[in-house]
Specification:
With 343 residues, the chain is α/β, with parallel strands linked by helices. It is 49% helix and 14% strand. It has helices spanning 2-9, 28-39, 49-60, 64-75, 82-100, 118-127, 144-158, 177-194, 202-205, 221-225, 230-244, 270-276, 297-313, 329-342; strands at 13-19, 105-111, 132-137, 166-169, 210-217, 252-257, 284-288, 318-322. The protein starts with a helix and ends with a helix.
Length: 343
């Protein structure tokens, strides 16, 4: 009788792993639908709707989706977008890992923009009688453009419900030891793969002509002036990884990208840095994007293709992009750690 009562009183728990999102496919229609959802968000474009919406609907949405078809097609995997594949696999593998450890916790993938939406994720969990939900936006460094935007979508989804689950939210994990260790291991493995002698560690590989570049997504400076902690947390992440790898300040760099429009953005800019490094004697780069949990258009197309071309054309000799944590086991371990510490 007591065991039956305990089973009935057990709270069913679930997790939403929330990434930014990508179009459903490479069609113009899917890309336009995604861009509309993304660019209409005031967190993303903080301009008066009276000024922005005519520009968006008259000049951007009619033309930009067509120009992006080739970009998305270049990075798709078996007809699917990388973020969708990796986020789903991360959720499934994390749930399986938790179950192997004796924890019955449901883990579901969701996106701030596009599909599967946060609302759909919540509905999936509630259809399974989940009573307590942990939300993990997969943005290690808190940023209003990304993290707060996911909270807005969550609030909008909850506003439509009469029976609300208990909600817990993780809003940052930029200094979590498992996160730092996972990225440090990725960098160490990349350095090993880029050198002739596997016994040479990352610190020894990064000589005068070889640097490690931490590339983070850029935001407008006025957001920082308004109190956004994002750049400070980016620096702290880079410093923690460098310390883990025993790097000197001269062995690594930090840049931001991209910049859009005439407003002042966080600097130094990635593209400008890449143009100048070869002339300064830096001919080889290891490049990592710690702010992205899964590879997407920004990392695979902008960082690994466009920026690589900039560096090589400026006189670079070697440019090695280090993939995001994606669905690696180290990422699963990180998610498990965050979940067990907050549920």
């Amino acid at each position: 009788m007591n065991s039956l009562m305990n089973a009935q009183m057990t709270v069913k728990q679930g997790v939403l792993l929330v990434n930014l999102g990508m179009p459903d496919d490479t069609s113009v229609r899917a890309i336009r639908r995604y861009l509309t959802d993304f660019l209409i968000d005031r967190r993303v474009v903080n301009i008066s709707p009276a000024l922005w919406l005519p520009i968006l609907y008259s000049f951007i949405l009619p033309f930009r989706p067509k120009r992006l078809v080739a970009n998305y097609a270049a990075i798709e995997i078996d007809g699917k977008m990388p973020v969708h594949i990796y986020n789903k696999a991360l959720a499934q593998n994390t749930e399986a890992n938790l179950q192997q450890a004796g924890h019955s916790i449901r883990v579901v993938s969701a996106m701030t923009y596009g599909n599967p939406s946060i609302q759909a994720g919540l509905e999936t969990l509630q259809s399974e009688q989940i009573e307590e939900v942990l939300i993990i936006p997969l943005f290690p460094q808190y940023c209003a453009v990304n993290t707060a935007a996911s909270f807005d979508k969550l609030a909008a989804a909850l506003a439509k419900k009469k029976n609300l689950p208990k909600i817990k939210i993780i809003n940052q994990y930029f200094a979590e030891p498992d996160y730092i260790a996972a990225l440090a291991t990725s960098i160490e493995n990349a350095a090993t793969g880029a050198q002739t002698h596997a016994s040479v560690n990352c610190s020894e590989y990064l000589t005068d002509d070889t640097k490690l570049l931490f590339c983070f997504n850029g935001i407008r400076k006025r957001q920082v002036d308004g109190g956004d902690p994002y750049p400070r947390q980016c620096v702290q992440t880079a410093e923690a990884i460098a310390a883990k790898l025993k790097l000197s300040p001269y062995q690594w760099l930090l840049t931001y990208q991209p910049r859009i429009g005439a407003e002042e953005w966080l600097q130094p800019f990635t593209s400008d840095t890449l143009k100048n490094l070869p002339a300064q004697g830096v001919k080889k780069l290891l490049v990592i994007c710690p702010g992205f949990a899964a590879d997407c258009l920004e990392t695979l197309e902008e960082i690994d293709i466009e920026n690589k071309a900039v560096f090589m054309q400026a006189g670079g000799v070697s440019y090695n992009y280090i993939p995001c944590l994606n669905d690696q086991q180290s990422h699963v371990k990180l998610m498990k750690t965050l979940i067990m510490a907050n549920l």
